[in-house]
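One such given next:
>
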Amino acid sequence: MGLDVVFRARSKFDPRYSTEVGYFGKVNFILTYFNISDDMNCTSIEVSHEQLHAFVNDLHKELIQHKANKTCSPISQKFTTKRVFFGGSTEYDTTYWESMMSVYNWVKQLDTSHVFDWDKDNLEMFISW
């Protein structure tokens, strides 16, 4: 039980078909970045290729700033933590930065590889807590 963020490839040709392509548990800064409000529990939102590309670039900038300045909290308000029911820690500790690196690596791989076919699928993010 807790915050789950599931990314799915949903077929443009048959919306009944979807495949999980990514999962993050209790990584609540994703909610802040995508402006997920408290009333959006159990909601799916579509993430465009442009949004995913912006996300990976913003994550990269944040991680570079953290490494250079050894900051504890994020530089950008886009990555502040969000308190939700069983949503994980709101501390800016080692776990936060490890989660950010994990999300960055996954998004970068999805954004730059040919694993995800934007012509055939939509990227959907399902959020529940």
About this structure: Residues 62 and 76 are 7 Å apart (CA to CA). The chain is about 35% helix and 20% strand. The mean pLDDT is 93.
